Amino acid sequence: MKQLIPLIALLATAPMIQAVEPSITCKSFGTTTGGQKASLYTLINANGASASISNYGGTVTSLMMPDRNGKMGDVVLGFNKLPDYEKKSPYFGCLVGRYGNRIAKGEFTLDGNTYHLPINNNGQSLHGGLKGFDKVVWNATPLETKQGPSLKLTYVSKDGEEGYPGKLSVTATYTLTNKNELKLVYSAKTDKPTVVNLTHHSYFNLAGQGNGDILGHVVTIHANKFTPVDKVLIPSGELASVKGTPFDFRKPTSIGARIQEKDEQLKNGKGYDHNWVADKWPGHLGLIAKIEEPKSGRVLEVISTEPGVQFYSGNFLDGTLTGKGGKVYNFRNGFCFEPQHFPDSPNHKNFPSTVLRPGQTYKNTIIYRFSSES
Ligand code: GLA
How many C-beta atoms surround the C-beta of residue 274 within 10 A? Predict the structure, then answer.
């Protein structure tokens, strides 16, 4: 009996996390301007955490995760309705492809053939072009797995779609694991040589979406090097040391600590909008970054097989977008960590290759792991 009192006291102060039965529900997310029906799936795991995902653009529209007191909060920016995603989304929560990030002047040469892509960003091609994988409707199959509720998305991108060669068959499986991880597993096959670089584009705010800027988040990036860029965010090709620069996040540092420093790279990116070269072994799943939010205690770990990560500090958010719950998204109110191959890889022989050939299978795993600390 003596043991009982401290146990009861402990239970009284324990976070209010209740075990629930994992589930997946589906509802309509409206009809696209092109007349396609879109759905919204809500995955709930055994801890009551949830992820809402639309098959429009493979978009994570909401992600409810507990803070240090077990209180759930939505940690991603987004919109309430499909037309906002179609008309004005700066890639909120979506699946980016066929080539995430920039390709210089929208041009690359593969096996002697030069391909021209749509220009949609300061004279460059960004995130797969005018109608990238973020703007198409995917086939969706809900699955129950041992790890947690899951949604399998598939899409066949036609040969020549957005200027890219080869018919590309893509599968992306999103699982909300019972360890509070959003696990994204991508695979793709092609019938002609092409380039592929898929990633995920959630804008996180661990204090809760719409709850101010992200400058107080404390970031660690396990990277000794990054890829410096020019004014239109195309890498020079150099792998530069982070040592002595505002890009050194090898020790936990707040996003805001150095973002105002006079630094040519910060000027070019209007803040952080750069690719870090992950220290972990390329192709192997490993921890790339950790982000801690001191007020809520929420922690996000970014784990991936990819060789790089684009860390973007929401520098283009300017208060003109109103999102979920009427929240206005001001300057730097969200940040992205997009594990991926390096920007403009098709034009840099020294970067890990993004070429996919017939018979090969493209694979990429990204895990966003949530926890909390007191
Ligand atoms: C990426 C880019 C940024 C910006 C956002 C979308 O993260 O690196 O420059 O274009 O997407 O606004």
Answer: 25
